[in-house]
Design brief:
mainly alpha; Four Helix Bundle (Hemerythrin (Met), subunit A); two-stranded antiparallel ribbon; 5 helices; 55% helix
């Protein structure tokens, strides 16, 4: 799958052709979606071995949006510096996701999503910066990739392999 060609994510049905405004709307809606799902059952219970719990997925999305905000700031403040990759599993291990609070995750997600949305709306659409895997990354690339994370992981909260 090549997101730059506007294909659909086979795992979650995310439309890679969506525009930036739609992507921002996906991220803006995610705290309510995650909050509703965290209210079902034990948010720290893993649905299967090796699969993150709802709380862990929430903390992951918090980190994705915080890093996404930094990437969007880079587009405006220092586009020549580029944006690096990050290892989500190493970050989860370093932050000890299983030990972090589920209620605090939701508070952090609300704040991270609000900040991300504000920055996404104000990032110049024509700005671009180098990325080691994506080539040239612009605002629409960062917005779509972060919106995909929000959409995809909202489904993950319902259990492995769930697709709407």
């Amino acid at each position: 799958m090549d997101p730059s060609r506007g294909e659909e994510c086979p795992a979650c049905g995310f439309d890679w052709a969506m525009g930036s405004d739609e992507g921002i709307a996906v991220v803006a809606a995610c705290p309510d979606q995650f909050g509703e799902r965290l209210g079902r059952g034990d948010p720290r219970a893993r649905p299967a071995p090796g699969v993150w719990s709802p709380a862990e997925y929430t903390w992951h999305l918090v980190d994705v949006l915080r890093i996404g905000t930094e990437r969007l700031w880079t587009l405006s403040a220092d586009p020549g510096s580029g944006i690096p990759c990050f290892d989500e599993n190493a970050l989860a291990e370093a932050r000890h996701y299983p030990a972090l609070s589920a209620p605090v995750a939701l508070v952090a997600l609300r704040q991270a999503a609000a900040t991300w949305c504000d920055v996404a709306r104000s990032t110049p659409p024509g700005a671009a910066t180098p990325h080691p895997e994506w080539g040239s990354a612009g605002a629409s690339t960062v917005i779509r990739r972060n919106a995909h994370e929000a959409h995809h992981h909202a489904l993950d909260l319902d259990g492995p392999g769930v697709r709407r």
